[in-house]
Amino acid sequence: MNVLTLGVRRGRLEIKQFLRSRESVVFTLAFPIIMVTIFSLIYPGELDSGVRYSQYIVTGMIAAGLLATGFQGLGMQIPMERDKGVLKRLAGTPMPKASYFLGKILMVLAIGAICTALLLVYAVLFVGVTLPTDPAKWLTFAWVFVLGITGCTLLGIAASSLVSTGRGASAVVTPIALVFQFISGVYFVFTSLPGWMQQVAALFPLKWMCQGMRSVFLPEAQAAFEPAGSWELGRVALVLVAWVVIGLGLCMLTFRWTSRRDG
After folding, report:
1. Does residue 98 contact residue 11 with C-beta atoms inside 8 Å?
2. Rounded to a whole number, what is the largest CA-CA distance in the chain?
3. Nearest by Cα to 243 from 179, 162, 104, 148
4. What would the DSSP string read from start to end of the chain?
5. Residue 52 and residue 50: Cα distance in Å, rounded?
6. Does pTM surpass 0.90?
7. pLDDT (tens digit, 9 = 90+) per residue, 98-125?
8. What pLDDT does residue 44 have?
9. Distance of alpha carbon 77 from alpha carbon 170, whole angstroms
10. What burial class does residue 41 get, using C-beta atoms within 10 Å of its C-beta: 0-12 exposed, 13-18 middle, 19+ buried?
C-alpha cells in the first residue's frame, strides 16, 4: 500500500482514538461554545462600528478553535505518544513516516471541521449570529480554514519537540496558545489593543486567521475598522502560506521519534 492509503487508514485510527477520549472530545468541542456564550452575556450589545459583539467573537473563536485543535492538541498529544514509546514503535514498522503525519493532519482537519460546524450551529440558534449568503464569502472561509489549520497543525507537530516529557507539554503549549488568543483579536476588538501588541500579533498566523474570518462573517463596511482599512485578503493568504512553509521546515528540522532519555 502507498503512503496515501496508509495515511488515510492512520487518520481513521487517529479519529477513533480521539473520540474514545471523552475528556478531550468534550473540551475541544465545548470550549469555543462556552467562550462565545460567556462573552456574549458579558457584552450583549453592539460594538462602536454597529456590529453585534456576538457576531465578532464568533469569528475569533473559529480561528482559536483551529489553533487549539492543531497547535495545542498535537503539541500535547505527540509528546505523550513519544513518552509511551508509541512513536519509537511506529518508526520501526514498515509504515512510511509520512503516513503518520498524514494521519495526524486528517484527524485535525476532521475534528476542526466538526468543532467549527457545531460552533456555527450554536451561534445561529442561540446568540443571534447570521451566516453569509454570498458564495464568495464561503470560498474565502474555505481557504482561510485550510491554510490556517494546516499551519497550526505543522506548528503543533514542531512544538511537540520543545518539551522533554509528555507531562510538561501542557505547561509549555497552553500558555503560548493563550497569549496568541489575547493578542490576536479573539476576545477583544483587535484595533483596541495597544499598537505594539498588534505589531507582535501580526508576526504570527492567528491574527491573520481571525482577520480572514472577520471578512467572511462581518459586513463589508467593517473593513474600514481594520488596521489597514481593508481586509487585506491577499496578505492574509500570503502570511498563512508562509507559516505553512515555516511549520513544515520546523517539523523537518526538529521532530524526534524518541524521547531525549532514549537518545
Report:
1. no
2. 59
3. 148
4. --HHHHHHHHHHHHHHHHHH-HHHHHHHHHHHHHHHHHHHHHS-SB-TTS-BHHHHHHHHHHHHHHHIIIIIHHHHHHHHHHHTTHHHHHHTSSS-HHHHHHHHHHHHHHHHHHHHHHHHHHHHHHS-------HHHHHHHHHHHHHHHHHHHHHHHHHTTS-SSSTTHHHHHHHHHHHHHHHTTSSS-GGGS-HHHHHHHTTSHHHHHHHHHHHHHS-GGGGGGSTTSS--HHHHHHHHHHHHHHHHHHHHHH--SS-GGG-
5. 7
6. yes
7. 899 999 999 999 999 999 999 999 999 9
8. 87
9. 9
10. exposed
Cell of 89: 514503535
* 3-state class (DSSP) for residue 52: strand
What's the pLDDT band for 171 if we cut at 50, 70, 90? confident
Per residue in 26-56, pLDDT (tens digit) is 888 899 999 999 999 998 888 877 889 999 9
